[in-house]
Automatic annotation (TrEMBL):
It comes from Pseudoalteromonas gelatinilytica. The keyword DNA-binding applies. Residues 29-295 form the Helicase ATP-binding domain. The lineage of its organism: Bacteria, Pseudomonadati, Pseudomonadota, Gammaproteobacteria, Alteromonadales. This is ATP-dependent DNA helicase. Keywords: ATP-binding, DNA-binding, Helicase, Hydrolase, Iron, Iron-sulfur, Isomerase, Metal-binding, Nucleotide-binding.
Length: 662
């Protein structure tokens, strides 16, 4: 059966001799006889689809279910291609875990194919600790402290705020005394064309790739990607957001302070320019006061959300025009400033920051941008940023990527879904319709048949939808939600991860559970704002625990075995209708359902992480019963509304499995 699937393929003649595909077949044979690997039809199909696309220099979109082994499916054809053409394969992903896994996978592929494939790894600047920045903020501390911090950084145990504080911001490069022991500096050296031209694979994350593409397209600087390179975008469903972030123009008080320091340092018409900076500070302070009035009731729960400021902005056009005129004047005057050679970096930075402010004010008003405010510290002007990003991110992606590059593979476990659409286009294309639009894919894109996960969901999982309809959108339902969770977690004896879409609801349910703490014996954990996700994951896995979580736990958490045997989705993860989502919905009616499906598939994908895993999925949001296509898009097939059936499944099917927990 499997052989006939493969033999029936027709190959597109491209820039390769037909032997290229033969080599992929040979690699599949080698993989199949290696006792360390389980043959998977989905992986082989995907590998051949990717090989054909690489041979035909085409853009391919391919969804690969959890456990397919998609990294082997693109590394094998990609690395064979890179050896043949002497052009490195570029693999970009969005998570550190995947980047690290890819390093191991390349070494494994080298062994299987008895070929030494070489690689370099690069990540975006926020993934590296800057020694110089740390030292300037901790003058009294010595190198031992930095080494401890570096260790926490590498294990992922570092707290998010610490990471933000000490990550690379403005690198001094060759002028930095710490450069020889700096991972960021060394990474940038390794990514120079004279090194990358001789490696077989360049592993990067999306942030670095986008930063590089942006420089290449906007500043016409040579980048990582050269003509003839083949690119794989893994976790491609994240790419649109990462491009939006990269093009987001942001102004905040931190920037104002840096500008003031630079103006003083350059002695640049101090009286006039510091007065202009004061006006900008007042503009931000005024905004902060107005936002407090609007969002006071929601309090800390708006942290990190994109807040709608369209109406507020419309009342401030006069102030903005005044500021725009003043910063335009400042920029012109700066051109004629005499400054010492030693101040060149300060001058360039100031010039860039003035440009950012002008770009920001120019972007407000015309219908080309979407804009919002965001708080990092609640209702504190020092933690407020005003942001603006282009509306049509798909056109930018097209310009950055598809216009100049031919061989591009986009893959992920969540690229499509059975979102109901009226479309005359072919079935595969319809399945990927949302991402096709969001990522600006060219007409010539090939759509691979989605490859299903090889795991036996039918035998190994049970979906529980409570028979009593709880309106999980209502604040007053927190106690009912807490009761459902406790009931399920008691059946599972802990081992339960709960995914919330809002911190407010999570805290309210947590409060309800604490009131009933005499009804359970497992450890109750809750994700905290500034806690390390890795540390919390370890704490959860090391005991019988129930973890209430949001955000990061919906994606990228990999807990195999009985430690995680029950996953509860409280509310279907429809996106918050913030300015970006509102704009997207105005141009693409699929947005709400499609974004929800991507997140739901990612979230529920946390439960079964290997062939051996068994588990219960509970979805408390009763809307799922009316929208049949949601469950049809998920791999689970056994569904019950009876808690007694859940109990029976756990006692009969899972007892032995659960007893294996250390
Ligand atoms: S080389 Fe750059 S990133 Fe590294 S420590 Fe120095 S300034 Fe920081």
């Amino acid at each position: 059966m499997m052989l006939s699937v493969i033999i029936k393929r027709t190959f597109v003649p491209g820039g390769f001799p037909i032997k290229y595909i033969d080599e992929i077949f040979k690699a599949i044979d080698l993989l199949n006889v290696d006792s360390k690997y389980v043959p998977r039809e989905g992986q082989e199909n995907l590998m051949l689809d990717i090989g054909e696309a690489m041979q035909g220099e085409a853009v391919l979109m391919a969804e690969a279910g959890v456990g397919i082994g998609k990294s082997f499916a693109y590394l094998i054809p990609g690395l064979i291609r890179s050896k043949r053409l002497k052009k490195p394969l570029i693999v970009s992903s969005s998570s550190i875990q995947l980047t690290e896994q890819l390093v191991g996978d390349i070494e494994a592929v080298s062994q299987i194919l008895s070929t030494n494939f070489t690689y370099v790894v690069g990540k975006g600047r926020t993934n590296y600790l800057c020694y110089a920045r740390y030292k300037s903020g901790n003058k009294h501390k010595d190198l031992t402290d930095i080494l401890t911090l570096q260790e926490e950084w590498k294990t992922g145990f570092i707290k998010p705020m610490e990471k933000k504080k000490w990550c690379v911001d403005n690198c001094l490069f060759n002028q930095c005394e710490y450069r020889n022991s700096c991972d960021f500096y060394n990474m940038r050296q390794n990514l120079k064309p004279r090194y990358t031209s001789s490696v077989d694979c360049i592993i990067v994350n999306h942030n670095l790739l986008v930063e590089d593409l942006k420089k290449k397209v906007k500043l016409h600087q040579p980048g990582l990607i050269q003509e003839g390179h083949s690119i794989v975008l893994d976790e491609a469903h994240k790419f649109e957001d990462i491009v939006r972030d990269a093009f987001n123009i942001k102004i905040n008080i931190k920037m104002v302070k840096r500008m003031e320091r630079a103006i003083k340092d350059l002695e640049f018409d101090l009286g006039l320019n510091l007065k202009t900076m004061r006006l900008l500070t007042e503009f931000l302070e005024d905004f902060n006061r107005e936002l407090i009035k609007i969002y006071a009731i929601e309090g800390k729960y708006i942290l990190g959300n994109r807040l709608d400021i369209k109406e507020l902005m419309s009342m401030k056009f006069k102030d903005m025009n005044l500021l725009l005129a003043k910063f335009n004047t400042m920029k012109s005057e700066l051109r004629y400033l005499d400054f010492k050679d030693s101040k060149e970096k300060v001058y360039d930075e100031l010039d860039e920051m003035i440009g950012t402010i002008i770009d920001y004010f120019e972007s407000i008003g015309p219908e080309v941008s979407v804009y919002w405010a965001i708080y990092e510290k609640i209702f504190d002007v020092n933690g407020l940023a005003l942001c603006s990003a282009p509306k049509e991110i798909n056109k930018i992606i097209y310009e950055l990527l598809f216009e100049n590059q031919k061989s591009i593979i986009l893959t992920s476990a969540t690229l499509g879904g059975n979102v109901p659409i009226n479309s005359a286009i072919n079935q595969n294309r319809a399945y990927y319709e949302y991402q096709t639009q969001a990522l600006g894919l060219p007409e010539s894109t090939i759509y691979s048949t989605p490859q299903k996960s090889p795991y036996n969901y039918e035998e190994n999982t049970l979906v529980y939808l409570p028979s009593m309809d709880i309106d999980v959108r209502e604040d007053s339902m927190s106690n009912d939600i807490a009761n459902e969770i406790i009931q399920l977690a008691n059946i599972m004896d802990g081992r339960t991860l709960i995914l919330f879409t809002s911190k407010k609801q999570m805290e309210s349910v947590y409060g309800g559970m604490l009131l009933r703490k005499d009804t359970f014996t497992w450890k109750l954990l809750k994700q905290e704002d500034n806690g390390s996700v890795n540390r919390l994951r370890e704490e959860f896995s090391s005991q019988k625990a129930v973890l209430l979580s949001t955000g990061a736990f919906w994606e990228g958490i990999n807990i195999k075995g009985p430690e995680l045997s029950c996953l509860i989705v409280v509310k279907l993860p429809y996106p918050v209708p913030d300015p970006v989502i509102k704009y997207k919905a105005s141009t693409n009616p699929l947005v709400h359902e499609a974004e929800m499906m991507i997140k739901l598939k990612q979230g529920t994908g946390r439960l079964i992480r290997s062939e051996m895993d068994l588990g219960i999925i509970a979805i408390l949001d009763h809307r799922i019963k009316a929208k049949k296509y949601i469950l049809q898009s998920l791999p689970f097939r056994n569904v019950t509304e009876e808690i007694s059936v859940v109990k029976g499944f756990v006692e009969n099917k899972m007892a032995q499995y659960l007893s294996e927990q250390r």
